[in-house]
Structure formats: C-alpha cells, structure tokens
Amino acid sequence: MSDLRDAALESKAWPFEEARRLAKRYEKAAPEKGFVLFETGYGPSGLPHIGTFGEVLRTTMIRRAFEVISDIPTRLICFSDDMDGMRKVPGNVPNQDLLKENLHRPLTSVPDPFEQFDSFGDHNNAMLRRFLDTFGFEYDFYSATEFYATGQFDEVLKRAVEKYDDVMKVMLKSLREERQQTYSIFLPIHPETGRVLYVPMKKVDRENYTVTFDDEEGREWTLPVTGGHVKLQWKPDFGARWAALDVDFEMYGKDHSTNTPIYDRICEILGGRKPEHFTYELFLDDKGQKISKSSGNGISIDQWLTYASTESLSYFMFQKPKTAKRMYFDVIPKAMDEYHQQLRAYAGQDAKARLANPVWHIHAGDVPQSDMVVPFSMLLNLASVSGAEDKETLWGFIRRYAPDASAETNPQMDQAAGFAVRYYNDFVKPEKTFRAPTDLEREALIELRDILRAWDGPLDDEALQTEVYAVGKERFEPLRAWFTALYEVLLGASQGPRFGGFIALYGVAETADLIDDALAGKFL
C-alpha cells in the first residue's frame, strides 16, 4: 500500500491531482464530521442521461484516488433537486394533460404520469437510483423535498433569513435591473395551490423566521421559512446545500463556472466552508453543438450501450475532462479498442504507469484482463465483408484465427461481436460506398490476389502484412494511397484495418475471392 500511495502522491493523472488538492483541505486536522463528503446534484425534471453518468463516474474516480492517498473515510451524496417546480411538461411522457394541470408545483407534488409512484419526482428519483445502481456506484441518495420537509435544512434557512440582505446583495449583482425588482432568494410554496411562487418578499422577519408576500391574486401570506414551506432559488440553494451538508467536493459543467463565485460566497455567508470544485468541459454533438437533454442531440447512454461496453464509455469519460469533445456514434469503435489496448498494457506496467492508465480509474485498481483476441474495429470490417447478421457469423472467423477462443472463455470478445454486428448494420452498412479500381490499382490487386492464391504459409498477420506492403511499395507513392485503395475498393470505406491482420482473420482464400469480386465489379 505504501508503494501505491507513494506513486499516487506523484501521479499526474487528473483524478490524483484533484485528490491531492482536496487532501490539502484537511492537512492540519481531519473533518469534524468524520469523513470527506463528495456530492453530485441531479435535476429530476426528466430521466437520467449521459451527463449524469459522467458526473457521478468522474466524482467516483476522484473519490477512489483520494482513498489511496488519505486514510480519512469518504461518502458520496447524490442530491436530487426534486422540490423544484415543474416549469414545462416533458414531451416524452404520457398523461400530458395531467401534467399541465400541475405546472409549477414541486416535482414531488406532481402526480406520476406513469402511475407507478406517488409523484413524478419519485418516479424520476427511482429511475436515477436504478440508473446509478446498474453501474455499481456507491452513494447515499438525498431528496431535496425530504431534506426541506424534515427540518434538515432549517438551520441554514434561518441563517438565510438572518443574512438575507447579504445574500441578496450577492445575487442582485448578477441580475439584470428588471429582474432585481422582483427577485427574492426565497420561493414560497403556496399553501392552497401548492405551486412554487416566484414573487418578491414584502417582509423577511428575522425574529420569527417568516416571510410575507402577495400571491398572484394579490392576497397576502406569511409563512415560516422552515419545515418545507419555502425553498431557495437554485443559485442560493447550491451554496446553502454546501453549507448545510458541509460538502467538501462537487464538480459541474463549464456552463456553471461563471456562478462559482456566487455559490461559494453564499456558502460562506451562511456559515459554511466553500468546497473544492472541478469544472469539466461539455460534450458536443456531431455538428459541434453542446449536447442537451432537452433537444436530444448527441448520443444517449442507452444508445452507447447498444453498441459498446460500459467500460468503453467510462474510458471516453476519463479522457481529458477539461477539453470539449465530440460525443457521437463514430467515436465508439476507437473508445472500445483503446480501452482494451490499455487493459493489455496494464499487466506489464510499473506502479507509476498503472496509476496513469485510465483502466486503473475505471476499475478502482481491480483491473481485469482483456480477452479480446480481435480488435473491435477489425470485427466491424469483418462484419462488413461477411454481411454478418448475428455474432455467430463472426465467431466462425474468430475461431479459425484463434482456435482456443470461445464465447465461454472470452466473454468480452463475445459481447464485442454482438456490438459489432449491431454497429455495422446501423452505421456502417448504410454508408458503404465502393468504387472501381484505377488501372494501377487493378494491377496491384491482381498481384496480391495471385500471391494469396499461392499462399502456403501460416495465417500470420506480419507475414501477410509484409506481402501487402511489398505489392504497394512497388507502385504507390505515398504508400498510404495503396491502403486507401484496398479499403475503398474492397471494403467500401475510406479507412480500415491493418490489412495483413484482416487477411489472417477473414481467410487467405476468402480475401482472394473478395478481390476477384471487386475486380468483376460485383460491389458497384
């Protein structure tokens, strides 16, 4: 353990850099609460999405890194802002009219349109917990509604009354003049309609901890700020929650970064210590636009997991979190192959290199071995030339290439074969475009075909690659033009696999037949 800790204290992997920064928070003394608290927030106005996964995953990676360098216990809270008013009706749920009748009520007061839970908030919270449990995250779940209603927020709410002017001063600086006229940090819950009211306060009573306001009809009301009668606006709520829970670490997207000074200052005004932050860049769709759960662009977590493993998604999330990245279907094959490359490299690495390897963070140090005897990108090409409709077609080739491999002994390989067939049929097949060879390419293809017809050596990747290379070197400058021709003429794609490995997998005679079919124009 000491060797691991020593390496972790020097590691440049971003989870360890963040963990060391967090550890400095308690260099002099351990936290009075007895643990370091990590938090992630969730707005349950809709179903969990890929951003939720990324936030909890990355926070967990930092948490595990912290546990290597520190003996202080840790906890992770997933906090659901389910007391928020439902401002609009999601378009992808049933019983739209029922939801319209309950607009602006807290999500936990809105009937469940699926008629499975006590409220829409409870339904979405259940989906969130099932979502997190599916991926094996270790966390404690907190509901804002319960937090407010049971009095766990009361002391901070009282301090918000006492420090009302100070908190308002922070908030008003960030608002347009028109908004300043009606803004209050407190949002009362109407005693009759149950709606969350965005109204100015006529009085904030520091002795009785009450607020007085007029509702939309001009009727005056006075409510205690405690006991769930009033909630905080979302920006003050952020800072107040940090103060109430004594949160030590929370990450969020770049779109929140301009609010960080506001959150921090409100936390301090309310008697808390601002937590450590980590701001990550946002994901982009195929057109370079920010991925939004409301617009549905980009790729969902269900879509990713239709075509690739959870681990490949975790690998993608690990990479350069402070850099904006395109997250679309075409990044999946690369993520799959690079994840397994890192798995294979891990076994031969020293402690320093292992802690820099993404797979250490994906698996919290308990790293499995890769049983992928064929890269995922090669499986896609194999599916393409064979027109595979099921993974058994691919296994026919895999077993010939690696006789000891099987679905039972190579479960990762078996899973990947299924992914490859689905990915090929949904993305590769519709985009395949073959072309006829030029005269020079035809000449080279004929020579390669004749070499393969006469081949009596083993199915050796390197030996076959050497022959492919030699045929091209005689004719093409740059040599890459030869390989581009192979891909475009034989596979109907602009790029492809290392061709010697492809021949070994697909078969020497089968590749010769493939060349003949291409030369005869059968793919055009």
Automatic annotation (TrEMBL):
A motif ('HIGH' region) lies at residues 44-52. ATP binds at K293. Its main location: cytoplasm. It comes from the Bacteria. GO terms for biological process: lysyl-tRNA aminoacylation. GO terms for molecular function: ATP binding; lysine-tRNA ligase activity; tRNA binding. SUPFAM superfamilies: An anticodon-binding domain of class I aminoacyl-tRNA synthetases (SSF48163), Nucleotidylyl transferase (SSF52374). It is found in: Cytoplasm. It catalyses: tRNA(Lys) + L-lysine + ATP = L-lysyl-tRNA(Lys) + AMP + diphosphate. GO terms for cellular component: cytoplasm. Keywords: Aminoacyl-tRNA synthetase, ATP-binding, Cytoplasm, Ligase, Nucleotide-binding, Protein biosynthesis. Its EC number is 6.1.1.6. PROSITE patterns: AA_TRNA_LIGASE_I. It is an enzyme of class 6 (ligase). A motif ('KMSKS' region) lies at residues 290-294. PANTHER family: LYSINE--TRNA LIGASE. Belongs to the class-I aminoacyl-tRNA synthetase family. This is Lysine--tRNA ligase. It comes from Pseudooceanicola sediminis. The gene is lysS.
